[in-house]
Each structure stands twice: as C-alpha cells, then as structure tokens.
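Recall the central idea of this unit: under ordinary conditions, the amino acid sequence of a chain determines the structure it adopts. In this exercise we apply that idea directly, starting from the sequence alone.
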Amino acid sequence: MEQSTVIFGIRAIIEAIESGSTLEKVYLQKGLRGDLFFQLDKILKKNKISTSVVPVEKLNRLSKHNNHQGAVAKISPIEFVDLETIIEDIQSKSKTPLFLILDQVSDVRNFGAIIRTAECTGVDAIIIQKSGSAPVNAETIKTSAGAAFKLPICKVDHIKDAIFQLKAADIKLVAATEKTEDSVFDIDLKQPTAIIMGSEHKGVSNSILKMADYRGKLPLLGEIGSLNVSVACGAFLYETIRQRR
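Accordingly, the structure predicted from this sequence is:
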C-alpha cells in the first residue's frame, strides 16, 4: 500500500469523506469504541464504504505510525463517475453505447486486465458494485497499463440498479454465461449494448441472469469447462468490434 494513498486518524477520515474524497476501503481496529468512532461508523454505513476489522498490528503496518486512532483509510487513485451522467453524455453524442458490467469480479489482476481490454475495444464505461468487487488499487492500475485513468468506471450500490437505468435508456443487456445454448456469435451486438461478466467462481448471478435480454456463451472445444473471466471478456468485446465494423 503506497503511503500517498493512505490517511489515518478518525477525524481525518471523517473529513475526507465529507469533502468528497473517494475511499476505497477503511480498516478499523478490532474492539474500537467511543463517540468519535460511532460517528465514523455512521458515516461509513451511510456512504456504503467498504470496511474491514483488523488487529492493531495491521494498522501500524498500513499507516507506518502508531497514532492512527484505530482507523486507516485507503484513498482510491481514481474518481468514479456517475452512471446516469455518463449514459446521457454518450447518448448526446449519437453514439452506439457499449458498457461493461462486472458482477463482483474480485481479483485485482483480472480486473486490471479487463479494464485494459475494455479501453482497447472502445467500451464507454465499466460498471461495478460497491461491495464484492475488486478495488481499484496500485496493482489494478499497473495490470491495466494505465487504462484505469482513461476509461470511466461507475461504482453503484447494486448491479440491479444499473441494469434498470440501462434498460430505461434502451440499452440491451447481454450476459456471458455457460447456462445457455445460445452462442454470443448469434447475438446482435451492433445495437446499444451492455455486456455482463460474472465473478471468477460463480459467474453471473442468477438474479442478474434473469434480467438480461440475451445470454451468450463461447464455444469450448477442449476438456476445461470454462475460461478465465478476463479472457472470456476479451472474446465478447472483440466479437462486438467484429460485428460493428
């Protein structure tokens, strides 16, 4: 964890949140109590900021100080964008939108690789959920080859909320899943589209699959039953390019 991305002290963290800074995660000392802590806890829950309860030794390592008051926060190296704003902006340009929804992809290397491929294939924005998603940290940015600074990333409370907004904007939802007989090569990706990729272990969740307009899979000709999510994502995005050329 880079020192420049870390702030420590309960008051400093509260002030950072109130000033609009984007916090990736807050680490709290196990057993922390007191009025100031409860004020911080209330603000964290209100803003739905990810937290982790850890021993004091970890806080000492993260902050490189002992006066952290039991709280250390990591500041996101990027600013997340508002989904409604980005949808309106893209549609105002009369462009055929291409969004990418990541349903709780949790590995930072997969996330970084996906961001890199998405930037190379003309994706307009990536949508992730606040909880359960890989953080945008130094390793994510390194794996993305800096693409995380170039491609808008939207962080939403729930993926379902994003889907409702996209559907309202007449954007079709295409879920990548093995739970279908339909090939991605038979789906019309020339229309305004949002591609949904699932987590490394569970794929796209069933509740999200039910909301998709289309479900598509890639042919697997070997004995392995699935592809790495970043590889599968690349195949879906390049099929989109092929159809739109």
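Residues 83-244 form a domain with the Alpha/beta knot fold (CATH 3.40.1280.10).
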